[in-house]
Design brief:
CATH architecture of the largest domain in chain A: Alpha Horseshoe
Structural class of chain B: mainly beta
Radius of gyration of chain B: 21 Å
CATH topology of the largest domain in chain A: Serine Threonine Protein Phosphatase 5, Tetratricopeptide repeat
Distance between the termini of chain B: 36 Å
Number of strands of chain B: 37
Mean pLDDT of chain A: 90
Strand content of chain A: under 5%
Number of helices of chain B: 6
Order of helices and strands of chain A: HHHHHHHHHHHHHHHHHHH
Oligomer: heterodimer
Largest sheet of chain A: none
Helix content of chain B: under 10%
Helix content of chain A: over 70%
Strand order of the largest sheet of chain B: 1-30-29-28
Number of domains of chain A: 3
Largest interface: A-B, 37 and 36 residues
Low-confidence stretches of chain A: 1-6, 319-332
Distance between the termini of chain A: 69 Å
Number of strands of chain A: 0
CATH class of the largest domain in chain A: Mainly Alpha
Chain lengths: 332, 537
């Protein structure tokens, strides 16, 4: 009877026993690494404790000692995600980018929509990129590639005047390098709205074509500029050639289709545009022009079908306005 | 052969460069019109600005001026005193209200012979009844036009969509805006422009629906739902243009929409409208992209007898000219017609007017960026910009802005634009609403030698303002068509009189009028260089 009475008390005592593994993991998750370390070190034979101890070490700058356990943890088990994230960050920190890349690739495959994984991936790419640039500036400072890279960075920052200057420097150093004239032409178009710039940009695209006559995109750009300059007759052969060079280039197909539509050769235009939408099902320009071609050819049903597709593509992303509508109390 | 000779003469006469000057100060238009911030703007409401109007409110034969204003000043009415002078009569006529005035449109809704005025607001709109040309009475509530909540009303137009002789009213709505809930600059990705924090929208802000009111003779009734006007969803509506675009005798409505497809409400003839812009080729550009439509104008710019549509857009976009191919089917001909190059401007007010009277409607558009902050970027896009003047050279538009006089080159952040021959000399002047500055009044400094005629139409069975009447004139061997319109451009109202340049022709051989409702009337052998009043028979 007495023993029976004591049972609940004994159970309570039993549950109150310290569990260093659970406590250590909890401390790790709340960022109390000192407590985590103390607790986890008390269970050296527990595999989970070893992994979280490695994670704790990694989080506190002890990557080198943590690597073997993190590698094991990433290979299998319930905590692959955590182990992989720490492993990737350790490799990035040690500038072991090849190994980091392999881990990141596997992480992205296992957890494709995980924000932490994507963050670590972005961090890895950024640091690897910085490292590569640093080495290029150190080892080949006068190379045209340095100027090209500077120009591309300026472009991404929207600093087109600076980008143009850098591209020009790169071209001066290596006038025969492929793609530089094209990039310069594009930067020129971005830099200024002055119609005079069109001619300058066209010159660059033509220079690109002189170096690489099979560059369909440069060919297309020449056609676009001539069109803007109202030299449509001169533009036409450039579009035709771009489409011949790359029959899988939707923009060129659309441009040629527009020429056919102007000539009222609707069946030919339709064939080109149908090919363009097949190549790029979300290309609104191709769908729109296909709709107009059907309309002009008297194929009302097909035009309506294309319109429905275009409406679907142009619909704003779901949820874009939901919050505001809710606040205004007028959600439809 | 006769036609060829006539066209040669017209072209020859049109060769001299215009010299537009801003004569606002001499005319007495010196009061700045407030409209939000000048150095930065916290909310989109500060960007859309306001319209202007030319209307002859007292029937003295001289076009008067109305300028809509943001908070800080009432909207202003200026009486045309003759001799090129205007006098501020706002207070005495009853224009004392302050608020976020947006659009303005005119029409004689009660057919009493005096042109009434409708002003749209973020907030309650105002219908001002013209009482004998002596004062304006706010009859908004009396005529059931009070709205049940705060709305962002923008463009407007009177039109007689059912041809019952009474003017109905269309009001475009931009979006749902509230000072308390709208995010501040930089708050989300829709609140940045080229990396700098700017006011948010329109993307990211909720859409609003357009409104149609039917004139029931005494009151207006909201028929938006039953007419189908409220049906299109997902548009940020600004400029409104009415016209019979498909030639069926019924007035249709085109709405320039910001960052969304523009709307073409085709009048079905049974009180219903259907948006057919997409299939008719007037919603997007020829790349299938929805541009930032602001102002909108129409003209028979090719002498084809059909109204084509022009729309102003944002920077890094082309202006859009939709050629009417007949039966209301359109094709984007912007680049082919000569408009492929002006991409640094944010365009607002626009309108066709034959400044040199050569018989080919030219095109003026006024500009100014939505974001004053753009000046910090030190690029070739500016908050204050010059206007653009295109000369219509037999259907091709030639940009002559740089040589069109100092008035065109002045830099302002302009919004509304309206036209009238306010001094009755046969040359059309332009009135511009500039943000936080006095308006501009653009007038030619020298006179082209071409002939002209102006027509004042008066409906009898049709509405008295003759809004919706279509006119075809034949002179010098060719024909031109035009339509009497309320509203138009960017939230503005041009003189209801129709102006035609006649080139070297000293006589109009024939004037054919199709009144709203379909009645035809023909006048012949009208001498040029005068204003002719034509009453519906």
């Amino acid at each position: 009877m007495r023993a029976i009475k004591l049972l609940p008390f004994a159970a309570a005592l039993l549950f109150a026993q310290p569990n260093p593994v659970a406590d250590g993991i909890a401390a790790f998750h709340r960022g109390d690494y000192q407590a985590a370390r103390t607790d986890l070190e008390r269970a050296p034979n527990d595999p989970q404790a070893r992994l979280f101890l490695a994670l704790t070490r990694a989080a506190t700058g002890g990557c080198e000692a943590a690597l073997p356990e993190l590698t094991r943890g990433f290979a299998a088990g319930d905590n692959r995600r955590l182990a992989g994230l720490a492993l990737a960050q350790c490799y990035v920190g040690a500038k072991r980018f090849a190994e980091a890349g392999a881990v990141v690739a596997q992480l992205e495959k296992l957890f494709p929509a995980d924000a932490d994984v994507l963050y670590v991936s972005a961090d890895y790419h950024m640091k690897a990129w910085n490292d590569a640039i640093y080495r290029m500036y150190q080892k080949a400072p006068s190379s045209y590639r340095v100027d090209q890279l500077s120009a591309e960075v300026f472009e991404t920052q929207g600093k087109y005047t600076e980008a143009v200057a850098e591209y020009r420097k790169a071209i001066e150093k290596n006038p025969k390098a492929i793609n530089l004239h094209y990039r310069l032409g594009r930067a020129l178009l971005q830099q200024s709205h002055d119609p005079a710039v069109l001619a300058q940009a066209r010159k660059e695209f033509e220079a690109e074509l002189a170096l690489n006559p099979s560059d369909a995109v440069a060919e297309y750009q020449v056609g676009q500029i001539l069109t803007a300059e109202q030299k449509k007759t001169e533009a036409a052969p450039h579009f035709e050639r771009a489409a011949q060079l790359r029959p899988d280039f939707p923009e060129a197909l659309v441009a040629v289709a527009k020429l056919r539509m102007e000539a009222r050769r609707y069946p030919e235009a339709i064939a080109l545009l149908e090919r363009a939408v097949k190549l790029q099902p979300r290309n609104e320009t191709a769908h729109y022009n296909l709709m107009m071609a059907y309309r002009n050819a008297g194929r009302a049903g097909d035009a309506e079908r294309e319109k429905a597709e275009l409406d679907r593509l142009q619909k704003p992303p779901e949820g874009e306005f939901t919050e505001f509508l809710k606040r205004l109390g007028d959600k439809k | 052969m006769k036609r060829a000779i006539a066209l040669f003469c017209l072209a020859h006469a049109a060769a001299q460069a215009p010299d537009f000057r801003n004569v606002a100060e001499q005319a007495g238009l010196t009061t700045p019109i407030p409209n939000g911030g000048s150095a930065s703007k916290q909310f989109i409401l500060e960007t859309t600005g306001s319209g202007v109007a030319f209307l002859d409110y007292d029937n003295d034969g001289l076009a008067d001026i109305f300028v809509a204003s943001g908070p800080g000043s009432p909207s202003r009415m200026y009486h045309n005193e003759g001799g090129g002078k205007f006098r501020d009569v706002s207070q005495s006529l009853g224009f004392t209200r302050e608020g976020w005035a947006q659009g303005v449109c005119a029409g004689d809704y009660d057919n009493d012979g005096y042109t009434d005025l409708f002003v749209t607001y973020w907030g309650q709109n105002a219908l001002y009844r013209n009482v004998g040309g002596k004062r304006f009475e706010d009859v908004t509530a009396k005529l059931h036009l009070t709205q049940d909540r705060v709305r962002y009303n923008t463009g407007c137009a009177f039109l007689d969509y059912d041809n019952d002789g009474k003017l109905d009213l269309f009001v475009a709505n931009y979006l749902k805006f509230d000072f308390n809930t709208t995010p501040k600059p930089g708050a989300n990705p829709y609140c940045f422009y080229r990396g700098i924090a700017v006011n948010c929208g329109p993307r990211g802000l909720p859409f609003e629906r357009n409104i149609l009111y039917h004139n029931e003779g005494g009151i207006f009734r909201d028929v938006s739902a039953e007419s189908g006007v409220s049906r299109p969803d997902g548009h940020y509506s600004l400029g409104v243009l009415t016209g019979d675009f498909n030639g069926d005798g019924l007035t249709d409505i085109y709405v320039a929409s910001d960052q969304t497809p523009s709307i073409l409400y085709i009048n079905q003839g049974n009180g219903k409208f259907v948006d057919e812009a997409m299939m008719r080729g007037a919603a997007l550009d020829d790349n299938g992209k929805a541009l930032s439509g602001m102002g909108v104008a129409a003209a028979d710019y090719l002498h084809e007898g059909m109204p084509s549509i022009f729309r102003t857009n944002f920077s890094d976009e082309l202006e859009t000219l939709y050629r009417n191919l007949g039966k209301g089917e359109f094709q984007d001909v912007s680049v082919d017609s000569g408009m492929g190059r002006n991409t640094r401007f944010v365009g607002w007010g626009c309108g066709f007017f034959d400044f040199d009277n050569d018989g080919w409607p030219d095109l003026l558009l006024v500009n100014g960026h939505a974001f004053p902050e753009v000046d910090r970027l030190k690029i070739d896009i500016h908050y204050r910009e010059r206007a653009i003047l295109y000369r219509n050279d037999h259907g091709k538009f030639v940009d002559i802005s740089e040589s069109a006089g100092p008035g065109i080159l002045e830099r302002h952040s302009s919004r509304g634009l309206a036209f009238a021959d306010y001094d009755n000399d046969g040359l059309v002047e332009a009135l511009v609403n500039n943000q936080n500055e006095p308006p501009s009044l653009l007038r030619l400094g020298s006179r082209p030698s071409n002939h002209w005629i102006e027509l004042t139409l008066e409906g009898v069975k049709a509405n008295r303002s003759a809004i919706g009447a279509r006119v075809r004139i034949t002179a010098g061997g060719f024909s031109q068509t035009a339509e009497v319109r309320s509203g138009g451009g960017y939230l503005s109202q041009s003189d209801l009189r129709l102006h035609f340049g006649l080139g070297t022709a000293a006589q109009v051989d024939k004037v054919e009028i199709t009144w709203p409702g379909g009645a035809k009337q023909v006048e012949t052998a009208l001498a040029a260089d005068r204003i002719v009043r034509i009453r519906e028979r």
